[in-house]
């Protein structure tokens, strides 16, 4: 931090700034007079440009400014946010090797291993201590994952999250006279409901329940990983993983309503476009999209496994880290802290950007308030009451996930049994890991 900023931090006004920016979650408990002093202090700080980068998304600069850039500028008037869009010439390798100044990296949980590979992170522990940032405000499974992956260190903060739900088309339930799914069901109970909705009517084939296979495996309720991170070997051939897969493949093989090969991988289209799928397991964004499209939809939490009663999907958070090369690490941390404040969490929630990452039921209830189509929907289903622990992540997850989905498809199509499908998948995944490790 520059001299003027160090002076601020050691002054009474600086103390107010630190408390407001980080303590208690972003200054939400500060007094009006304190807030005025903080605003005055921020206005007098030395101007600085903070560069943001969001790899592997199509976020535009305008979208970034609407999402958070304008609010950051309002909160920190001395900061000029600069956004580097991801695209041709700005993939991760190109940005890292170009030497461009980079301060804050925003990424989904699937990119976490790459932040280490590309050295796009900074241990935030000292800033957390200095600024009295309360990590206990954060959703527990997400915080546990951050600490687990960092070996006890905290390399990032979550800014919003998502989870899976069971979205259902009320019109199809009404059409066939089947009661709507309920909270607290088991997968066996849902299978019985699915069979009642899997039928041909008027020459049209309808299906009861299907899912986005990759997401369901990635965010599975049993917290099973794709990779044994200690051995650096695929973990999809275990009995537990096979049994979990079989739980879902049976929905694809309901007698008389087997999903054809050409429709596998298009489950979302069956639900949202064809509207021949009654229930779809996917991220809660499905309900937003369906409601916006004029569908008569609602949601309940995912059914649970008998061995994990009441446990919902894993959270799938989006994180922000301070780049190791940043010349403005302290300011960048203040911004990260602000993104987890109740002020920003409420904004993200109301707009439907993502679920809050802090323990505040009122913020969860506010999800989607700015989306008229979500009025009256079962919003509480979007946030698992008991999220599953987040699976350990590996840089090879994508390679193994690909083979897991292939094995799933083989099993769902009746090409092979579970043992054969997942043994083949695990063997190929091991070869893929070995090849990738040599690069």
Descriptive overview:
This protein is α/β, with parallel strands linked by helices and about 450 residues long. Helices cover about 45% and strands about 15% of the residues. The protein has two domains: about 50-160 and about 315-380, Periplasmic binding protein-like II (D-Maltodextrin-Binding Protein, domain 2), CATH 3.40.190; about 165-315 and about 395-439, D-Maltodextrin-Binding Protein, domain 2 (3-Layer(aba) Sandwich), CATH 3.40.190.10. The protein has 19 helices and twelve strands. Strands 2-1-3-12-4 form a five-stranded mixed β-sheet, sandwiched between helices. Strands 6-7-10-5-11 form a five-stranded mixed β-sheet. Helix 1 crosses helix 2. It is globular. It starts with a helix and ends with a helix. It comes from Paenibacillus allorhizosphaerae. This is Extracellular solute-binding protein. Keywords: Cell membrane, Lipoprotein, Membrane, Palmitate, Signal.
Summarize the structure.
With 439 residues, this protein is of the alpha/beta class. Helix content is 43%, strand content 13%.
What descriptors fit this protein?
single chain, 439 residues, alpha/beta, D-Maltodextrin-Binding Protein, domain 2, five-stranded mixed sheet, 19 helices, 12 strands, 43% helix, disordered N terminus
Superfamily at the CATH H level of the largest domain? Answer: Periplasmic binding protein-like II
CATH 2nd-level architecture of the largest domain: 3-Layer(aba) Sandwich
Report helical residue fraction: 40-55%
Question: Which range does the strand content fall in?
Answer: 5-15%
Poorly predicted segments: 1-30
| Largest pleated sheet | 5 strands, mixed
Structural class by secondary-structure content: alpha/beta
Helical element count? 19
CATH topology of the largest domain, by name, is D-Maltodextrin-Binding Protein, domain 2
Apparent shape: globular
Biggest sheet strand line-up: 2-1-3-12-4
CATH top level class name of the largest domain: Alpha Beta
Find the count of extended strands (DSSP E, 2+ residues): 12
Average predicted confidence as pLDDT: 90
Distance between the termini: 38 Å
Supply Rg: 23 Å
Structural domain count: 2
């Amino acid at each position: 931090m520059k001299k003027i900023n160090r002076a601020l931090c050691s002054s009474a006004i600086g103390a107010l700034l630190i408390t407001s920016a980080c303590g208690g979650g972003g200054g939400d408990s500060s007094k009006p007079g304190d807030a005025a002093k903080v605003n005055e202090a921020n206005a007098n700080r030395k101007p600085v440009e903070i560069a943001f980068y969001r790899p592997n998304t199509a976020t535009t600069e305008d979208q970034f400014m609407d999402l958070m850039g304008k609010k950051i500028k309002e909160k920190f008037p001395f900061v000029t946010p600069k956004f580097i869009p991801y695209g041709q010439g700005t993939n991760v390798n190109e940005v890292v090797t170009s030497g461009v100044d980079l301060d804050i990296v925003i990424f989904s949980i699937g990119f976490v291993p790459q932040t280490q590979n590309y050295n796009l992170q900074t241990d935030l522990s000292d800033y957390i201590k200095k600024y009295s940032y309360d990590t206990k405000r954060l959703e527990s499974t997400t915080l546990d994952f951050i600490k687990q992956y960092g070996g006890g260190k905290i390399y990032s903060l979550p800014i919003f999250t998502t989870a899976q739900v069971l979205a259902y088309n009320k019109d199809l339930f009404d059409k066939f006279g089947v009661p709507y799914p309920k909270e607290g069901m088991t997968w066996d109970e849902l299978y019985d409901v699915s069979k009642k909705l899997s039928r041909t009517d008027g020459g049209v084939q309808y299906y009861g329940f299907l899912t986005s296979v990759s997401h369901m495996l990635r965010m599975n309720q049993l917290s099973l990983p794709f990779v044994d991170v200690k051995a650096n070997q695929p973990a999809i051939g275990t009995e537990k993983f096979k049994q979990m897969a079989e739980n879902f493949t049976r929905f694809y093989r309901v007698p008389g309503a087997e999903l054809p090969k050409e429709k596998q991988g298009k489950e979302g289209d069956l639900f949202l476009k064809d509207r021949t799928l009654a229930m779809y397991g996917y991220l809660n964004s499905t309900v937003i999209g369906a409601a916006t499209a004029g569908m008569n939809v609602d949601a309940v939490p995912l059914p649970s496994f008998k061995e994990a009663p009441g446990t919902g999907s894993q959270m799938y958070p989006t994180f922000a880290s301070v780049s190791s090369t940043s010349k403005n690490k302290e300011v960048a941390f203040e911004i990260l802290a602000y993104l987890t404040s109740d002020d920003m969490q409420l904004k993200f929630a109301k707009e439907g950007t993502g679920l809050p990452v802090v323990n505040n039921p009122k913020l969860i209830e506010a999800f989607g308030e700015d989306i008229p189509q979500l009025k009256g929907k079962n919003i509480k289903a979007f946030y698992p009451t008991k999220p599953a622990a987040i699976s350990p992540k590996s840089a090879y997850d994508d390679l193994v996930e690909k083979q897991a989905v292939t094995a799933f498809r083989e099993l769902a199509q009746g090409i092979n049994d579970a043992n054969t499908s997942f043994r083949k998948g695990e063997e190929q995944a091991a070869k893929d890991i070995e090849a990738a490790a040599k690069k």
